[in-house]
Amino acid sequence: MAERATSIEPGVRVRVPFGRSMRVGVVVGIADTSALAPAKLKAVERILDDRPLFDPVTFELLRWAAEYYRHPIGEVFAAALPAGLREGRPAAATAAQLWALTEAGAAQLADPSNRRGPRRRALLAHLAVHGPRSDAELAPQFAPSLLRAVRDCGWIRVTEAATAPPSGQEAPLGPSAPLVRSPPIELGEAQGRAVAAIQAAEGRYRAFLLYGVTGSGKTEVYLRAIATAIAGGGQALVLVPEISLTPQLVERFRRRFDTEPAILHSGLADRERRDAWQRARNGEARVIIGTRSAVFASIANLAMIVVDEEHDPSYKQQEGFRYSARDLAVLRAQRARVPIVLGSATPSLESLENAARGRYDRLDLPERAGMARPARMTVIDLRRHGVEQGFSQPALAAMQTHLGAGGQVLVFLNRRGYAPSLYCTACGWVANCRHCDARLTLHRREGALRCHHCGAQRRTIVACESCSQPLRPVGQGTERVEETLERLFPGATQARLDRDTAAARGAVESVLARVHSGEARILIGTQMLTKGHHFPDVSLVVILDADQGLFATDYRAAERLAQTIVQVAGRAGRAERAGEVLIQSNYPEHPLLTLLTAEGYEAFASRALAERREAHWPPFSRLALLRAESRDTASLDRFLRAIAERGRAEAARGPAHPAPRILGPASALVARRADRFRAHLLIEADDRAALQRFLAAWLPLVESTKAPSGLRWSIDVDPLEVD
Ligand code: ADP
Ligand code: ZN
Ligand code: ZN
Predict the structure, then answer these.
(1) What's the whole-model pTM score?
(2) Cα 498 to ligand 3 centroid, rounded to whole Å
(3) For a disulfide at 417, which of 282, 441, 539, 679, Cβ 3.0-4.6 Å?
(4) pLDDT given for residue 183 in this prediction
(5) Quick check: CB of 369 below 6 Å from ligand 1?
């Protein structure tokens, strides 16, 4: 432990008395005077750090975010710290323990006659390929019990990682550039232009929108741009939507740079997280790859930020501190004066508009690397064709053809479970959740009825609770699709990827491995399929139900649907063989579908932006959503009406013309969830500044309005979903 620190400055942690207990806090400011009587002030019990935990830009970013998202600053700082540091553990990193292959283990692996224990062999092979690995890194694929068993055989052992420098000391930075390994391929022309543009922005802020279809070589552009950005001793921050779904990306960074990236995500054990956090902070990790909260990582010498799949909704935290990591990443780049690259095959409408206005430089990669051709999209009119368990005749015929030709088929349906409702054909009774205004989803294999809104679960029933007649599952979920296809294509092995099949340890990897090895011929999955992976042997993609997104109430639904279709389509195909994409719909003449399939994402996006402009939706206005919930619907409504009225009066007094508008109260789509009624007010202003001014004036009034007991409310600035 470092000796006791004595100087206090913003960004250090302190232990302070709070009521009868002690709490750990972060110093956000220092004052000479106080409005409180000296007797009411308490002394800091202990200073925990001898230097600030945050680099100055991150510190300011956190303060700014608390203000902008209207969230308590303590929770904002807490979100930026690994749990152990929140609890007051020392910030100095302890050496991580790594598992390494022993000589006996290597011999074991090399022995071709040894065919026993495929899990053990997989572990040995993994360590042989990747080098020493920590518990956390192995955890997604290998159980702790397996590690112990293999250790007891003497095939692996624990070593200490190259340790981080002791507390207070900076790692030596400077020209010790990471070695760039693996002979880089020759860049295509568009890639070369993109890399040159990003390199030219070195040392200053510039935002780039890297727009390129899946497989167009965006990752290669990131790798090149990062290589030069960090060559002088800097560090790069790479944000990704979900680490567990993008192991290939992480692996490419690991292979390209001769330096172990720091990986930051919520699935890590605290010790690993603290270790990675510390390696970012002290400059030792040259590349930091993380999910949304990594935008707050303290980074000694930031030189570049990359946000991969910038359109992905997971960049927005949807509960508690509701921030957008994508938006904050841009702000961070601005403050730190470094370039930022936002990459996507389906950029968000906001980013496209920012590029159109000249705020971002747009870099296009119009073609797939290695000359692969784009997939051909066709809409199938469900009204004109016979449908069997959700599959139209043309879709089944196409599957037959592609499977027969040796291709793999990907079937996309964004609904897990067996069927979304259980229905009585005799009396019309439906199995509903007792706690929500929602139907229960049948999960047949587990024999369970589950509520996808509150998580409630009960054993499945076969007879109607009202008239005792047999019940019928209605509609399709991925589990049912799997059953249908097993019957229709008995020779074709299937793999299913959704939150149910991915729950078990290592399950995602094993599903992906079965697809990549070619063992699985049909891959069925939900939204999880749209992220990260590339399936070169998939030649046909079937999107079972496009209509879910066409008529949703949310103004972003169309954008989401288009992104999903293009992302799923982009998973398929390789150089020699153009992929085929079939989209099933009851509304094939819907302008969104026709535009998207005939002219592509960009044509769709311009039209969708024109519609947003017309309707005054973001990015042509700014929104905030005040959500409230309570067990009592009447008092919920009264409260929302009262604060809406105060807000309208406040808006009318304010300087903005036109004044911010308050819409509602309106019930949420699922009006009752977990026995609580939910409703909201939507605040719409012409621009960010007007919205912020209004919230600053109104929220204190909301806080001072007496809420009925048990009522909870929260504010969401720049909400992703207006529900
Ligand atoms: P994206 O990130 O846009 O999906 P990647 O960078 O992953 O694209 O590239 C897709 C595939 O094409 C990868 O296998 C990659 O190694 C390869 N690739 C990328 N750039 C080139 C290039 N200039 N020449 C040949 N192959 C390339
Ligand atoms: Zn009945
Ligand atoms: Zn429920």
Answers:
(1) 0.86
(2) 20
(3) 441
(4) 64
(5) yes
